[in-house]
């Protein structure tokens, strides 16, 4: 526009409004001088215009001309045109009091076995005002296109708007500089499911504008969640908004191979070019005091402007490649600019340089889940003169760990628009399904493969041999008749190696030896000192087999075929609990806690250890490594030892139990309400309390939900019984 105005002004000098002006003819030598001067000025203006166009096109990239959106495979130009009436309503500014329980409808998300929210992306539209002017000067940027494409390819995405928990507009608000604030807000309000922004998510990385540069998007947005790159403590709604990084285009344009942690050429490096004068003066003073340990870079004044100059930094005429130079320093300064959020932070992390962040009130990216103390040093701005002393006090080993953590943070959460988008959705997902949320370790610990502890599957005995068989451990108190029937039935199982009876009654002696059933395998009675349910899981020396069958003294309904088949399944999955009746844990939204569900469900997350196979290793873990006071709690309440074992195994293995055969309940015909503990009226309530207690102690919900069970291959087939390996599989 400035260049055009120059042409107009020159034209006005030559011609007045009423025709050619009456001006004297110049001498030839002066005419040549002025023509030359004008040409130089014109070329300078053109060069300056090209520079600014290049600079503002560097981020975000416009994709108006060529790109296609992967969601609907249409060119941006083919998107339907929507005109915004001038009288269209404008959303409210934004409620700073919004929290997930006040401005977000979690019931729209519902329960699903995968614990994944479903995200709907609005179809692409081109919004213009009444006279046809677009609401954005850039349209759909390459960065926002990448973000929407990544979400559409993820497990979060759904194209069924009725199933959606979260809605993302296709209106690009990443860069506020390119937006018309009022018209963009009106376009948001026109979205069919807007409903005052409820359950809507907006992504913005460059908020505010001159002169004040607000730290949150200025577009009125009602109750919509904001994933913002530059929040301050004044604008960030904790537990509602998500603080995200400012994406750096250099992430994909410059390949920085990972560098091993350790000492670098420089101790501190400053590479930002537009920092406040007071900061630069202080950095120059530190440079004078510490010499070569600190490298203070600035923009290169001797290079032609353009994209190439963006990747260069200079110090006293010496040119350095950026961001490559960042890898030559242990610590890299990240100061606040006009905005709190800086793309420099991403560049520094990519280089494996520990960021020294000085931006008071800045909410660090993904700080809800990331432990920034492990990857950065945050120093108040007023402590800038003491920066060198503070950093020198950090041990070398800690610096190396921080360098390693910084690089991993970039790889996992900063490296692409996909990484930023998926991390944002996972944080929101964890809020909605807290029992399935990622742990602190999963968010902050880099995955490390310790090869010394990994055995090749070519030499690992994945399936234990059949020959050793299993040891049956029967817990009993004084039900002699049903105990003897259980022993008689178990003794018929071909793979039984030994029978151990855990006698839990200290007031009564077990029957005389002559009265016990005659069986073909060793049988031993183990008397306990106290009546505790945990005694059934004690690692007795008499257990010599890998496989253990825990079974109660009233489980007389299981056939020998069912037991043998359960053992065969355990051999295929020796790290699992393999049992018969399955149970399920559910989240009670009204009560806000877990509850125990019995019998007729399509899903299973536990199996009852009243009859279950498991590896004897878990006896040691249950007895000596059970977290918190769970074991004592079980013994005090005389309930839930099976739930505790399910928690323990699932927490160690990360796997669900395996239910075998169709049996859904254990029913003892001879048992009365007095004899049967599980028949107590308070039993179900107390078992729900157990689940909530154990989840609190474990600080997570380790139980995994599955929707399948294991049955013999020919179980339902219409074949002669003699052709079936397990013909006598019991009923429900």
From TrEMBL:
Quote the catalytic activity from the record.
3-O-{[(1->4)-beta-D-GlcA-(1->4)-alpha-D-GlcNAc](n)-(1->4)-beta-D-GlcA-(1->3)-beta-D-Gal-(1->3)-beta-D-Gal-(1->4)-beta-D-Xyl}-L-seryl-[protein] + UDP-N-acetyl-alpha-D-glucosamine = 3-O-{alpha-D-GlcNAc-[(1->4)-beta-D-GlcA-(1->4)-alpha-D-GlcNAc](n)-(1->4)-beta-D-GlcA-(1->3)-beta-D-Gal-(1->3)-beta-D-Gal-(1->4)-beta-D-Xyl}-L-seryl-[protein] + UDP + H(+)
Q: Which residues form a coiled coil?
A: 269-296
- Give the protein name, as stated in the record: Exostosin-2
Q: How does it sit in the membrane?
A: Single-pass type II membrane protein
Q: In which pathway does it act?
A: Protein modification; protein glycosylation
Q: Which residues cross the membrane?
A: 32-53
Enzyme Commission number(s): 2.4.1.224
What taxonomic ancestry is recorded?
A: Eukaryota, Metazoa, Chordata, Craniata, Vertebrata
What is its EC class? transferase
Question: Which cellular compartments is it found in?
Answer: Endoplasmic reticulum membrane; Golgi apparatus, cis-Golgi network membrane
Binding partners and assembly:
Part of the heparan sulfate polymerase, a dimeric complex composed of EXT1 and EXT2. Could also form homooligomeric complexes. Interacts with NDST1. Interacts with GALNT5.
For molecular function, the Gene Ontology terms on record are: glucuronosyl-N-acetylglucosaminyl-proteoglycan 4-alpha-N-acetylglucosaminyltransferase activity; glucuronosyltransferase activity; metal ion binding
The record places domain Glycosyl transferase at: 470-715
- Protein source organism: Cyprinus carpio
Q: Which residues form the Exostosin GT47 domain?
A: 114-394
The entry's function note states: Glycosyltransferase forming with EXT1 the heterodimeric heparan sulfate polymerase which catalyzes the elongation of the heparan sulfate glycan backbone. Glycan backbone extension consists in the alternating transfer of (1->4)-beta-D-GlcA and (1->4)-alpha-D-GlcNAc residues from their respective UDP-sugar donors.
Arranged from A to Z, the UniProt key words for this protein are: Coiled coil, Disulfide bond, Endoplasmic reticulum, Glycoprotein, Glycosyltransferase, Golgi apparatus, Manganese, Membrane, Metal-binding, Signal-anchor, Transferase, Transmembrane, Transmembrane helix
């Amino acid at each position: 526009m400035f260049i055009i105005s120059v042409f107009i002004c020159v034209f006005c000098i030559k011609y007045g409004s009423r025709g050619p002006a009456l001006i004297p003819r110049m001498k030839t030598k002066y005419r040549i001088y002025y023509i030359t001067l004008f040409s130089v000025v014109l070329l300078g203006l053109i060069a300056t215009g090209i520079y600014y166009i290049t600079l503002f096109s560097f981020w975000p990239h416009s994709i108006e001309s060529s790109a296609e959106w992967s969601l609907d495979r249409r060119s941006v130009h083919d998107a339907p045109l929507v005109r915004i009436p001038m009288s269209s309503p404008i959303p409210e500014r934004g409620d700073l009091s919004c929290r997930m329980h006040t401005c977000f409808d979690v019931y729209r998300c519902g329960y699903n076995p995968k614990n994944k929210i479903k995200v709907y992306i609005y179809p692409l539209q081109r919004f213009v005002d009444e006279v046809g002017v677009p609401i954005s000067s850039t349209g759909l940027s390459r960065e926002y296109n990448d973000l929407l494409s990544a979400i559409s390819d993820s497990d979060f995405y759904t194209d069924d708007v009725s199933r959606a928990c979260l809605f993302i507009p296709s209106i690009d608000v990443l860069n506020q500089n390119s937006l018309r604030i009022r018209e963009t807000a009106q376009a948001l309000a026109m979205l069919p499911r807007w409903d005052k922004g409820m359950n809507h998510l907006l992504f913005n990385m460059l908020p505010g504008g001159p002169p004040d540069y607000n730290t949150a998007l200025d577009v009125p947005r009602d109750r919509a969640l904001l994933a913002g790159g530059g929040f301050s403590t004044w604008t960030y709604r904790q537990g509602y908004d998500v603080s995200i990084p400012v994406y750096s285009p250099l992430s994909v344009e410059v390949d920085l191979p990972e560098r091993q942690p350790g000492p670098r050429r420089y101790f501190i490096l400053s590479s930002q070019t537009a920092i406040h004068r007071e900061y630069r003066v202080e950095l120059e003073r530190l440079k004078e005091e510490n010499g070569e340990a600190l490298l203070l870079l600035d923009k290169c004044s001797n290079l032609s402007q353009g994209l190439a100059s963006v990747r260069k930094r200079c110090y006293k005429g010496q040119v350095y490649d950026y961001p490559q130079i960042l890898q030559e320093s242990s610590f890299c300064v990240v100061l606040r600019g006009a905005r709190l959020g800086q793309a420099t932070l991403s560049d520094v992390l990519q280089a494996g340089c520990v960021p020294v962040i000085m931006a008071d009130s800045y909410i660090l990216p993904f700080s809800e889940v990331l432990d920034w103390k492990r990857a950065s040093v945050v120093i108040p701005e007023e402590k800038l003169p003491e920066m060198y002393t503070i950093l020198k006090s950090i041990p070398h080993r800690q610096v190396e760990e921080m360098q390693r953590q910084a690089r991993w943070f970039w790889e996992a959460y900063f490296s692409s628009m996909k990484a930023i988008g998926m991390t944002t959705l996972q944080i929101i997902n964890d809020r909605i399904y807290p029992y399935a949320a990622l742990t602190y370790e999963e968010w902050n610990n880099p995955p490390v493969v310790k090869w010394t502890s990994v055995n090749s599957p070519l030499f690992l005995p994945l399936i234990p041999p059949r020959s050793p068989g299993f040891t049956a451990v029967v817990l009993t108190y004084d039900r002699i008749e049903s105990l003897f029937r259980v022993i008689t039935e178990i003794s018929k199982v071909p793979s039984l190696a030994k029978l151990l009876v855990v006698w839990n009654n200290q007031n009564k002696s077990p029957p005389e030896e002559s009265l016990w059933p005659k069986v073909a395998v060793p049988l031993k009675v183990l008397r306990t000192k106290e009546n505790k349910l945990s005694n059934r899981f004690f690692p007795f020396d008499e257990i010599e087999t890998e496989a253990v069958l825990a079974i109660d003294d009233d489980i007389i309904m299981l056939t020998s075929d069912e037991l043998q088949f359960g053992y065969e399944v355990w051999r295929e999955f020796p790290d699992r609990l393999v049992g018969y009746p399955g149970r399920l844990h559910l989240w009670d939204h009204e009560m806000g806690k877990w509850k125990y569900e019995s019998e007729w469900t399509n899903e299973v997350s536990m199996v009852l250890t009243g009859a279950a196979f498991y590896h004897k290793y878990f006896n040691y873990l249950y007895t000596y490594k059970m977290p918190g006071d769970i074991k004592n709690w079980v013994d005090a309440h005389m309930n839930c030892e099976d739930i505790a074992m399910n928690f323990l195994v699932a927490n160690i293995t990360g796997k669900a139990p395996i239910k075998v055969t169709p049996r859904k309940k254990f029913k003892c015909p001879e048992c009365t309400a007095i004899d049967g503990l599980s028949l107590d009226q308070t039993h179900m309530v107390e078992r729900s309390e157990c689940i909530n207690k154990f989840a609190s102690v474990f600080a997570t919900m380790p139980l995994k939900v599955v929707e399948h069970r294991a049955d013999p291959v020919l179980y339902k087939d219409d074949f002669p019984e003699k052709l079936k390996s397990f013909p006598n599989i019991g009923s429900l």
